[in-house]
Protein backbone atom coordinates (compact mmCIF):
# COMPACT_ATOMS: atom_id res chain seq x y z
CA UNK A 1 0.00 0.00 0.00
CA UNK A 2 1.20 3.49 -0.74
CA UNK A 3 1.93 5.57 2.34
CA UNK A 4 -0.09 8.34 0.67
CA UNK A 5 -3.25 6.34 1.47
CA UNK A 6 -2.85 7.08 5.18
CA UNK A 7 -2.63 10.34 7.07
CA UNK A 8 -3.41 11.75 10.49
CA UNK A 9 -7.08 11.55 11.52
CA UNK A 10 -9.12 14.73 11.30
CA UNK A 11 -10.73 15.95 14.52
CA UNK A 12 -14.17 14.91 13.26
CA UNK A 13 -13.20 11.32 12.40
CA UNK A 14 -15.55 10.11 15.15
CA UNK A 15 -18.83 11.64 16.21
CA UNK A 16 -17.62 12.00 19.81
CA UNK A 17 -14.36 12.64 21.58
CA UNK A 18 -12.99 9.82 23.72
CA UNK A 19 -13.47 12.09 26.74
CA UNK A 20 -17.16 12.38 25.79
CA UNK A 21 -17.51 8.61 25.95
CA UNK A 22 -15.82 8.60 29.35
CA UNK A 23 -18.30 11.17 30.62
CA UNK A 24 -21.21 9.07 29.37
CA UNK A 25 -19.79 5.98 31.08
CA UNK A 26 -19.36 7.88 34.35
CA UNK A 27 -22.91 9.25 34.15
CA UNK A 28 -24.24 5.70 33.75
CA UNK A 29 -22.23 4.41 36.72
CA UNK A 30 -23.31 7.31 38.91
CA UNK A 31 -27.00 6.87 38.08
CA UNK A 32 -26.82 3.10 38.62
CA UNK A 33 -25.35 3.52 42.11
CA UNK A 34 -27.99 6.13 42.99
CA UNK A 35 -30.72 3.74 41.89
CA UNK A 36 -29.54 0.96 44.17
CA UNK A 37 -26.91 -1.02 42.22
CA UNK A 38 -24.29 -2.47 44.52
CA UNK A 39 -21.85 -2.60 41.58
CA UNK A 40 -22.00 -1.73 37.89
CA UNK A 41 -20.14 -1.70 34.59
CA UNK A 42 -20.55 0.42 31.46
CA UNK A 43 -19.24 -0.09 27.94
CA UNK A 44 -19.56 2.77 25.46
CA UNK A 45 -18.51 2.45 21.83
CA UNK A 46 -18.84 3.94 18.39
CA UNK A 47 -17.51 2.86 15.04
CA UNK A 48 -17.74 3.35 11.32
CA UNK A 49 -16.50 1.74 8.16
CA UNK A 50 -16.64 1.44 4.42
CA UNK A 51 -16.58 -1.70 2.26
CA UNK A 52 -16.41 -2.00 -1.51
CA UNK A 53 -16.75 -5.20 -3.57
CA UNK A 54 -15.93 -5.55 -7.26
CA UNK A 55 -16.67 -8.58 -9.42
CA UNK A 56 -15.39 -9.01 -12.98
CA UNK A 57 -14.45 -5.35 -13.02
CA UNK A 58 -17.91 -4.11 -12.08
CA UNK A 59 -18.83 -2.60 -8.74
CA UNK A 60 -21.12 -5.00 -6.88
CA UNK A 61 -21.57 -3.33 -3.50
CA UNK A 62 -20.64 -0.15 -1.67
CA UNK A 63 -21.49 -0.30 2.01
CA UNK A 64 -21.14 2.18 4.83
CA UNK A 65 -21.68 1.43 8.48
CA UNK A 66 -21.81 3.77 11.45
CA UNK A 67 -23.00 2.65 14.84
CA UNK A 68 -22.77 3.45 18.52
CA UNK A 69 -24.00 1.89 21.72
CA UNK A 70 -23.88 1.73 25.50
CA UNK A 71 -24.12 -1.51 27.44
CA UNK A 72 -24.90 -1.41 31.16
CA UNK A 73 -24.35 -4.30 33.56
CA UNK A 74 -25.63 -3.87 37.11
CA UNK A 75 -25.42 -6.05 40.20
CA UNK A 76 -27.85 -6.06 43.08
CA UNK A 77 -25.91 -8.17 45.49
CA UNK A 78 -25.15 -11.16 43.28
CA UNK A 79 -28.11 -10.71 41.00
CA UNK A 80 -27.11 -9.45 37.56
CA UNK A 81 -28.95 -7.46 34.92
CA UNK A 82 -27.91 -6.12 31.53
CA UNK A 83 -29.44 -3.63 29.10
CA UNK A 84 -28.18 -1.60 26.16
CA UNK A 85 -29.13 1.34 23.95
CA UNK A 86 -27.86 3.19 20.90
CA UNK A 87 -29.40 6.46 22.16
CA UNK A 88 -26.91 8.63 24.04
CA UNK A 89 -29.49 11.07 25.43
CA UNK A 90 -29.67 11.52 29.21
CA UNK A 91 -33.20 10.13 29.32
CA UNK A 92 -32.29 7.02 27.33
CA UNK A 93 -29.30 6.34 29.59
CA UNK A 94 -31.45 6.59 32.71
CA UNK A 95 -34.05 4.25 31.21
CA UNK A 96 -31.36 1.76 30.21
CA UNK A 97 -29.94 1.70 33.75
CA UNK A 98 -33.40 1.20 35.19
CA UNK A 99 -34.13 -1.61 32.72
CA UNK A 100 -30.91 -3.38 33.77
CA UNK A 101 -31.87 -3.00 37.45
CA UNK A 102 -35.33 -4.43 36.83
CA UNK A 103 -33.78 -7.44 35.12
CA UNK A 104 -31.34 -7.93 38.00
CA UNK A 105 -34.08 -7.90 40.61
CA UNK A 106 -35.88 -10.77 38.85
CA UNK A 107 -32.72 -12.80 38.21
CA UNK A 108 -31.54 -15.62 40.45
CA UNK A 109 -28.47 -14.84 42.54
CA UNK A 110 -25.19 -16.30 41.28
CA UNK A 111 -22.45 -16.74 43.85
CA UNK A 112 -19.80 -16.10 41.18
CA UNK A 113 -21.36 -12.94 39.73
CA UNK A 114 -19.72 -9.57 40.27
CA UNK A 115 -16.88 -7.31 39.27
CA UNK A 116 -13.27 -8.54 39.12
CA UNK A 117 -10.99 -8.25 42.12
CA UNK A 118 -9.95 -4.59 42.31
CA UNK A 119 -6.25 -5.50 42.55
CA UNK A 120 -6.39 -7.14 39.10
CA UNK A 121 -7.78 -4.11 37.27
CA UNK A 122 -5.58 -2.18 34.83
CA UNK A 123 -4.11 0.82 36.62
CA UNK A 124 -2.56 2.67 33.70
CA UNK A 125 -3.22 3.14 30.02
CA UNK A 126 -0.76 2.16 27.30
CA UNK A 127 -0.48 3.30 23.71
CA UNK A 128 -0.19 0.07 21.73
CA UNK A 129 -0.35 1.74 18.30
CA UNK A 130 -3.75 0.24 17.48
CA UNK A 131 -5.31 3.11 15.52
CA UNK A 132 -4.35 3.95 11.94
CA UNK A 133 -7.11 5.70 9.99
CA UNK A 134 -7.25 4.93 6.28
CA UNK A 135 -8.45 8.01 4.43
CA UNK A 136 -9.60 6.02 1.43
CA UNK A 137 -12.22 7.38 -0.94
CA UNK A 138 -14.81 5.14 -2.56
CA UNK A 139 -13.12 5.68 -5.94
CA UNK A 140 -9.79 4.76 -4.39
CA UNK A 141 -11.24 1.57 -2.90
CA UNK A 142 -12.81 0.60 -6.23
CA UNK A 143 -9.47 1.11 -7.95
CA UNK A 144 -7.66 -1.11 -5.42
CA UNK A 145 -10.28 -3.87 -5.78
CA UNK A 146 -10.10 -3.73 -9.58
CA UNK A 147 -6.30 -3.87 -9.54
CA UNK A 148 -6.45 -6.88 -7.22
CA UNK A 149 -8.94 -8.78 -9.39
CA UNK A 150 -7.19 -7.86 -12.64
CA UNK A 151 -3.89 -9.17 -11.27
CA UNK A 152 -5.63 -12.52 -10.78
CA UNK A 153 -7.04 -12.54 -14.32
CA UNK A 154 -3.60 -11.66 -15.71
CA UNK A 155 -2.04 -14.86 -14.32
CA UNK A 156 -3.73 -17.20 -16.82
CA UNK A 157 -6.63 -17.32 -19.29
CA UNK A 158 -7.87 -20.28 -17.20
CA UNK A 159 -8.72 -17.76 -14.48
CA UNK A 160 -11.89 -16.68 -16.20
CA UNK A 161 -14.33 -15.92 -13.42
CA UNK A 162 -14.32 -14.28 -10.04
CA UNK A 163 -16.22 -14.25 -6.78
CA UNK A 164 -14.94 -10.73 -6.30
CA UNK A 165 -12.31 -8.54 -4.72
CA UNK A 166 -13.16 -6.57 -1.58
CA UNK A 167 -11.66 -3.64 0.26
CA UNK A 168 -12.75 -2.76 3.78
CA UNK A 169 -11.74 -0.11 6.30
CA UNK A 170 -13.13 -0.19 9.84
CA UNK A 171 -12.44 2.21 12.70
CA UNK A 172 -13.86 2.45 16.20
CA UNK A 173 -13.31 3.68 19.72
CA UNK A 174 -14.62 2.51 23.08
CA UNK A 175 -14.56 3.10 26.81
CA UNK A 176 -15.02 0.49 29.54
CA UNK A 177 -15.61 1.51 33.15
CA UNK A 178 -16.82 0.05 36.43
CA UNK A 179 -17.77 1.17 39.91
CA UNK A 180 -14.42 0.07 41.37
CA UNK A 181 -12.83 3.09 39.71
CA UNK A 182 -11.58 1.46 36.53
CA UNK A 183 -11.95 3.42 33.30
CA UNK A 184 -10.08 2.80 30.08
CA UNK A 185 -10.52 3.03 26.35
CA UNK A 186 -8.87 3.85 23.06
CA UNK A 187 -9.46 4.01 19.29
CA UNK A 188 -8.72 1.03 17.03
CA UNK A 189 -8.67 0.26 13.33
CA UNK A 190 -8.63 -2.81 11.12
CA UNK A 191 -8.50 -2.91 7.34
CA UNK A 192 -8.36 -5.68 4.74
CA UNK A 193 -8.11 -6.50 1.05
CA UNK A 194 -9.24 -9.84 -0.37
CA UNK A 195 -9.72 -11.66 -3.66
CA UNK A 196 -11.51 -14.90 -4.59
CA UNK A 197 -11.32 -16.32 -8.11
CA UNK A 198 -12.37 -19.37 -10.14
CA UNK A 199 -10.04 -21.26 -12.47
CA UNK A 200 -10.74 -23.91 -15.12
CA UNK A 201 -13.11 -24.50 -17.97
CA UNK A 202 -16.30 -26.47 -18.66
CA UNK A 203 -17.11 -28.56 -15.58
CA UNK A 204 -13.55 -28.64 -14.23
CA UNK A 205 -13.69 -25.58 -11.99
CA UNK A 206 -11.82 -24.74 -8.79
CA UNK A 207 -11.88 -21.67 -6.56
CA UNK A 208 -9.49 -20.25 -4.02
CA UNK A 209 -8.86 -16.95 -2.31
CA UNK A 210 -6.37 -14.90 -0.39
CA UNK A 211 -6.49 -11.83 1.80
CA UNK A 212 -4.34 -9.51 3.88
CA UNK A 213 -5.36 -7.59 6.98
CA UNK A 214 -3.72 -5.12 9.36
CA UNK A 215 -4.46 -2.22 11.66
CA UNK A 216 -2.27 -0.02 9.44
CA UNK A 217 -3.20 -0.13 5.73
CA UNK A 218 0.46 0.39 4.85
CA UNK A 219 1.14 -3.14 6.12
CA UNK A 220 -1.44 -4.81 3.87
CA UNK A 221 0.04 -6.71 0.91
CA UNK A 222 -0.31 -4.97 -2.44
CA UNK A 223 -3.47 -5.68 -4.48
CA UNK A 224 -1.31 -7.22 -7.22
CA UNK A 225 0.31 -9.65 -4.79
CA UNK A 226 -3.02 -10.73 -3.32
CA UNK A 227 -4.73 -11.20 -6.71
CA UNK A 228 -1.76 -13.03 -8.22
CA UNK A 229 -1.50 -15.46 -5.30
CA UNK A 230 -5.26 -16.12 -5.18
CA UNK A 231 -5.16 -17.02 -8.88
CA UNK A 232 -2.16 -19.33 -8.52
CA UNK A 233 -3.83 -21.12 -5.63
CA UNK A 234 -6.98 -21.68 -7.70
CA UNK A 235 -4.97 -22.91 -10.70
CA UNK A 236 -2.97 -25.33 -8.56
CA UNK A 237 -6.20 -27.08 -7.53
CA UNK A 238 -7.21 -28.03 -11.07
CA UNK A 239 -7.23 -31.78 -11.60
CA UNK A 240 -8.03 -32.50 -7.96
CA UNK A 241 -9.14 -36.02 -7.16
CA UNK A 242 -9.82 -38.35 -4.26
CA UNK A 243 -7.18 -40.59 -2.78
CA UNK A 244 -7.41 -44.05 -1.24
CA UNK A 245 -8.22 -44.21 2.46
CA UNK A 246 -4.98 -44.23 4.43
CA UNK A 247 -3.24 -43.20 7.64
CA UNK A 248 -0.47 -40.69 6.98
CA UNK A 249 1.16 -37.50 8.31
CA UNK A 250 -0.96 -34.38 7.75
CA UNK A 251 0.47 -30.90 7.28
CA UNK A 252 -1.91 -28.03 8.10
CA UNK A 253 -1.09 -24.90 6.11
CA UNK A 254 -0.53 -21.83 8.32
CA UNK A 255 -4.07 -20.35 8.04
CA UNK A 256 -5.54 -23.70 9.11
CA UNK A 257 -2.90 -24.25 11.77
CA UNK A 258 -4.33 -21.15 13.44
CA UNK A 259 -7.70 -22.93 13.63
CA UNK A 260 -6.01 -25.87 15.39
CA UNK A 261 -4.63 -23.49 18.00
CA UNK A 262 -8.11 -21.98 18.19
CA UNK A 263 -9.44 -25.42 19.14
CA UNK A 264 -6.88 -25.54 21.94
CA UNK A 265 -7.97 -22.11 23.19
CA UNK A 266 -11.63 -23.18 23.18
CA UNK A 267 -10.85 -26.32 25.17
CA UNK A 268 -8.64 -24.42 27.64
CA UNK A 269 -11.15 -21.59 28.20
CA UNK A 270 -13.01 -21.15 31.45
CA UNK A 271 -16.49 -21.57 29.97
CA UNK A 272 -15.68 -25.02 28.62
CA UNK A 273 -13.85 -26.03 31.78
CA UNK A 274 -16.42 -25.09 34.41
CA UNK A 275 -19.16 -26.73 32.33
CA UNK A 276 -16.96 -29.84 32.17
CA UNK A 277 -17.28 -29.87 28.40
CA UNK A 278 -13.57 -29.95 27.60
CA UNK A 279 -11.07 -32.73 27.03
CA UNK A 280 -8.48 -30.51 28.76
CA UNK A 281 -10.25 -30.58 32.14
CA UNK A 282 -7.74 -30.83 35.01
CA UNK A 283 -4.79 -30.54 32.62
CA UNK A 284 -2.81 -27.74 34.30
CA UNK A 285 0.79 -28.83 34.76
CA UNK A 286 0.34 -31.78 32.42
CA UNK A 287 1.79 -32.34 28.97
CA UNK A 288 -0.91 -31.68 26.38
CA UNK A 289 1.31 -30.89 23.36
CA UNK A 290 4.46 -32.29 21.85
CA UNK A 291 7.56 -31.30 23.84
CA UNK A 292 8.51 -29.15 20.85
CA UNK A 293 5.62 -26.74 21.45
CA UNK A 294 6.01 -23.39 23.18
CA UNK A 295 3.00 -21.04 23.22
CA UNK A 296 3.24 -17.50 24.59
CA UNK A 297 0.65 -14.78 25.08
CA UNK A 298 1.90 -11.28 24.28
CA UNK A 299 -0.96 -8.76 24.77
CA UNK A 300 1.16 -5.63 24.39
CA UNK A 301 2.65 -6.05 20.92
CA UNK A 302 2.56 -2.64 19.18
CA UNK A 303 0.00 -2.75 16.37
CA UNK A 304 -1.01 -6.33 17.19
CA UNK A 305 -4.36 -7.50 15.88
CA UNK A 306 -5.26 -8.81 19.35
CA UNK A 307 -3.27 -6.39 21.50
CA UNK A 308 -4.96 -4.80 24.51
CA UNK A 309 -3.84 -3.37 27.86
CA UNK A 310 -6.90 -4.90 29.56
CA UNK A 311 -9.58 -7.48 28.86
CA UNK A 312 -13.33 -6.87 28.62
CA UNK A 313 -13.60 -7.11 32.44
CA UNK A 314 -11.00 -4.35 32.82
CA UNK A 315 -8.42 -6.83 34.16
CA UNK A 316 -4.86 -5.92 33.18
CA UNK A 317 -3.36 -8.19 30.55
CA UNK A 318 0.18 -9.51 30.91
CA UNK A 319 2.79 -11.51 29.07
CA UNK A 320 2.77 -15.16 30.02
CA UNK A 321 3.80 -18.61 28.86
CA UNK A 322 0.69 -20.70 28.19
CA UNK A 323 2.48 -23.87 27.07
CA UNK A 324 6.13 -24.64 27.89
CA UNK A 325 7.79 -27.73 26.43
CA UNK A 326 4.31 -29.09 25.73
CA UNK A 327 3.11 -28.62 29.34
CA UNK A 328 -0.01 -26.53 29.96
CA UNK A 329 0.90 -23.60 32.23
CA UNK A 330 -2.37 -21.68 32.28
CA UNK A 331 -6.00 -21.53 31.17
CA UNK A 332 -7.90 -18.63 29.58
CA UNK A 333 -10.12 -17.22 32.32
CA UNK A 334 -12.43 -14.24 32.83
CA UNK A 335 -13.36 -12.98 36.29
CA UNK A 336 -16.57 -15.03 36.24
CA UNK A 337 -15.16 -18.29 34.93
CA UNK A 338 -12.19 -18.00 37.30
CA UNK A 339 -14.56 -17.83 40.26
CA UNK A 340 -16.49 -20.82 38.94
CA UNK A 341 -13.22 -22.77 38.95
CA UNK A 342 -11.89 -21.39 42.23
CA UNK A 343 -9.04 -19.68 40.39
CA UNK A 344 -7.89 -16.16 39.43
CA UNK A 345 -8.66 -14.30 36.21
CA UNK A 346 -5.94 -14.52 33.58
CA UNK A 347 -7.11 -11.36 31.79
CA UNK A 348 -8.83 -13.28 29.02
CA UNK A 349 -12.43 -12.09 29.20
CA UNK A 350 -13.21 -11.70 25.51
CA UNK A 351 -10.53 -14.10 24.27
CA UNK A 352 -6.78 -14.50 23.94
CA UNK A 353 -4.32 -11.73 23.11
CA UNK A 354 -1.66 -12.43 20.45
CA UNK A 355 -1.10 -16.11 21.12
CA UNK A 356 2.26 -16.96 19.56
CA UNK A 357 3.39 -20.50 18.80
CA UNK A 358 7.19 -20.52 18.64
CA UNK A 359 8.18 -21.24 15.03
CA UNK A 360 10.63 -23.92 13.99
CA UNK A 361 13.45 -23.59 11.48
CA UNK A 362 11.65 -24.98 8.41
CA UNK A 363 9.51 -23.12 5.89
CA UNK A 364 6.60 -24.85 4.14
CA UNK A 365 8.88 -26.51 1.60
CA UNK A 366 11.08 -27.77 4.41
CA UNK A 367 8.05 -29.21 6.22
CA UNK A 368 7.02 -31.03 3.04
CA UNK A 369 10.50 -32.56 2.88
CA UNK A 370 10.25 -33.63 6.51
CA UNK A 371 6.80 -35.14 5.95
CA UNK A 372 8.06 -37.04 2.87
CA UNK A 373 4.73 -38.74 2.12
CA UNK A 374 1.34 -37.52 3.26
CA UNK A 375 -1.31 -34.84 2.92
CA UNK A 376 -0.95 -31.05 2.82
CA UNK A 377 -4.31 -29.57 3.87
CA UNK A 378 -5.23 -26.11 2.59
CA UNK A 379 -8.99 -26.11 3.14
CA UNK A 380 -11.23 -27.48 5.89
CA UNK A 381 -14.99 -27.98 5.67
CA UNK A 382 -17.62 -28.53 8.34
CA UNK A 383 -17.34 -28.30 12.11
CA UNK A 384 -16.79 -31.87 13.26
CA UNK A 385 -15.07 -31.23 16.59
CA UNK A 386 -16.26 -32.75 19.86
CA UNK A 387 -14.62 -30.73 22.62
CA UNK A 388 -15.84 -33.08 25.33
CA UNK A 389 -13.68 -35.99 24.19
CA UNK A 390 -11.45 -34.32 21.58
CA UNK A 391 -12.71 -36.24 18.54
CA UNK A 392 -11.87 -34.38 15.34
CA UNK A 393 -13.33 -35.03 11.88
CA UNK A 394 -13.39 -32.45 9.07
CA UNK A 395 -13.93 -32.45 5.34
CA UNK A 396 -10.72 -31.34 3.63
CA UNK A 397 -8.95 -30.46 0.40
CA UNK A 398 -5.29 -29.98 -0.37
CA UNK A 399 -2.39 -31.80 -2.04
CA UNK A 400 -0.90 -35.28 -1.99
CA UNK A 401 2.82 -35.32 -1.27
CA UNK A 402 5.39 -37.98 -2.26
CA UNK A 403 9.14 -37.78 -1.58
CA UNK A 404 8.64 -34.31 -0.13
CA UNK A 405 7.09 -32.90 -3.30
CA UNK A 406 3.49 -32.06 -4.19
CA UNK A 407 2.20 -34.64 -6.68
CA UNK A 408 -1.41 -33.61 -7.31
CA UNK A 409 -4.34 -31.75 -5.71
CA UNK A 410 -6.84 -33.66 -3.58
CA UNK A 411 -10.51 -33.05 -2.83
CA UNK A 412 -13.57 -34.75 -1.31
CA UNK A 413 -11.75 -36.36 1.58
CA UNK A 414 -12.15 -36.39 5.35
CA UNK A 415 -9.38 -36.19 7.93
CA UNK A 416 -9.98 -37.62 11.39
CA UNK A 417 -8.20 -38.00 14.70
CA UNK A 418 -8.41 -36.89 18.30
CA UNK A 419 -7.14 -33.49 19.40
CA UNK A 420 -5.37 -35.05 22.40
CA UNK A 421 -3.28 -37.20 20.07
CA UNK A 422 -2.93 -34.54 17.38
CA UNK A 423 -1.51 -31.99 19.83
CA UNK A 424 0.88 -34.49 21.41
CA UNK A 425 2.01 -35.74 18.01
CA UNK A 426 2.95 -32.43 16.41
CA UNK A 427 6.21 -33.21 14.65
CA UNK A 428 7.13 -29.65 13.62
CA UNK A 429 5.93 -26.05 13.38
CA UNK A 430 6.94 -23.97 10.38
CA UNK A 431 8.41 -20.49 10.26
CA UNK A 432 5.86 -19.45 7.61
CA UNK A 433 3.86 -17.47 10.18
CA UNK A 434 0.81 -15.67 8.81
CA UNK A 435 -0.59 -12.93 11.06
CA UNK A 436 -4.32 -12.55 10.53
CA UNK A 437 -5.78 -12.51 14.02
CA UNK A 438 -5.22 -13.46 17.64
CA UNK A 439 -3.22 -16.64 16.88
CA UNK A 440 0.20 -16.43 15.25
CA UNK A 441 1.51 -19.77 14.04
CA UNK A 442 3.26 -21.32 11.06
CA UNK A 443 2.17 -24.52 9.32
CA UNK A 444 1.80 -27.50 11.67
CA UNK A 445 2.85 -31.07 10.84
CA UNK A 446 0.92 -33.79 12.69
CA UNK A 447 2.64 -37.17 12.68
CA UNK A 448 -0.39 -39.27 11.80
CA UNK A 449 -4.10 -38.95 11.03
CA UNK A 450 -6.73 -41.00 9.27
CA UNK A 451 -7.61 -39.80 5.77
CA UNK A 452 -10.86 -41.17 4.33
CA UNK A 453 -11.17 -41.15 0.56
CA UNK A 454 -12.08 -43.88 -1.91
Strand content: 35-45%
Instruction: Work out the radius of gyration.
Output: 24 Å
Order of helices and strands: HEEEHHEEEHEHHEEEHEHEEEHEEE
Low-confidence stretches: 1-11
- Specify the overall morphology: globular
Helix content: 10-25%
Strand arrangement in the largest pleated sheet = 3-2-1-4-5-6
Distance between the termini: 46 Å
Summed up, the helix count is 9
The mean pLDDT is 95
Biggest sheet: strands, sense, closure?
6 strands, antiparallel
Describe what this molecule looks like in 3D.
- This protein has helices at 18-34, 90-105, 138-153, 223-236, 254-267, 270-274, 335-341, 364-371, 419-424; strands at residues 39-55, 58-76, 79-85, 159-178, 183-201, 204-214, 246-252, 295-297, 320-324, 327-328, 355-357, 374-381, 391-402, 405-418, 426-429, 439-440, 444-452.
- A hairpin with a 2-residue loop joins strand 1 and strand 2 (58-76).
- The protein is 23% helix and 36% strand.
- Helix 1 (18-34) packs across helix 2 and helix 3 (138-153) packs parallel to helix 4.
- With 454 residues, it is an alpha+beta fold.
Amino acid sequence: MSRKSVSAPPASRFGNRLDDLKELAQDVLTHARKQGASACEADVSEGFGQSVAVRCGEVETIEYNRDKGIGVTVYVGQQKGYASTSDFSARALRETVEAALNIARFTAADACAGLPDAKLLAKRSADLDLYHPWLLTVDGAIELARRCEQAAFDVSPLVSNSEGASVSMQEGQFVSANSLGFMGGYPTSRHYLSCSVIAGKDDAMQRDDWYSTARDARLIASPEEIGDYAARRALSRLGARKIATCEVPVLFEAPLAASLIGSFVHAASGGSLYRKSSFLLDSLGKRVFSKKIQISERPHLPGGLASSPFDSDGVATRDREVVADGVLQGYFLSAYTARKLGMQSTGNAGGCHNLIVKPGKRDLRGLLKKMDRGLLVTELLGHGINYVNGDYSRGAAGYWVENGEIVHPVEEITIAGNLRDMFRNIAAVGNDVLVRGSKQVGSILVERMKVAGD
